[in-house]
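task queued by scheduler; priority normal; single chain, no ligands, no partner chains; default sampling; output format set to structure tokens
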Amino acid sequence: MSECLAIVMAAGKGTRMQSDLPKVLCRVCGRPMVDFVLDALTESGVKQMALVVGYRADEIRKILGQRSGIVFVEQQEQLGTGHAVMVCRDEIARHDGPVLVLAGDSPLTQSSSLTALLEDFQRDRPACILGTLRKENPHGLGRIVRDTAGNFEAIVEEKDATPEQRQINEVNMSTYVFDSRELLHALDQLDNDNQQGEYYITDCPGILKSEGKEVRALPVLKPCEALSVNTIEQLQIVESEMRRSALERQQA
């Protein structure tokens, strides 16, 4: 299996977390939430990780610097998820193989899901694979639109979705595997022509698809992976889910 480079987006401030910490350092079950993401990457065999840092970057370096295989890449301005990946251009350019892009605020990321995505990439080497899941209540999430043959067609954000598209329950969870060269190419095409003036990694699959390259959406993520952390309430939900899962494992 080709070596994988993981890019973990971890530059944000936890504005809604009622904390002055970088969001990814907010604790879940006594540990920084990003620790669980890095553990899942390690368990899935990923040895190279680029951690994109920004707000209070030195504190993240101090806490995570002892972990092996991590380089820290600074995103001095937070100009969107696409920009977070752009600042890793040098790391991507030095890499020949799959690049896994994911968020550092998703502590319920499962190593089995990452492994499934990487194994699918190794079999056929598409330009991009999106890790998706089916969610009973997909409110607020980008929908995965497929063509009549069941192939990936587009990510449509809820605010842009038609009533029919809002009925779709397969959603995008910002977990991607890209071919390194195709990712660099897609980043070159990104623009920030939107109300927020930001660059979005969600645009990259569509760019590659529009050029006739193979983009897949695989619904291999587990329901718990829909639980990311943006608020204190969400952190409490994630912590409860972690404790429940740990109890189940002990009783198995």
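post-processing summary
- The mean pLDDT is 94.
- The chain has eight helices and eleven strands.
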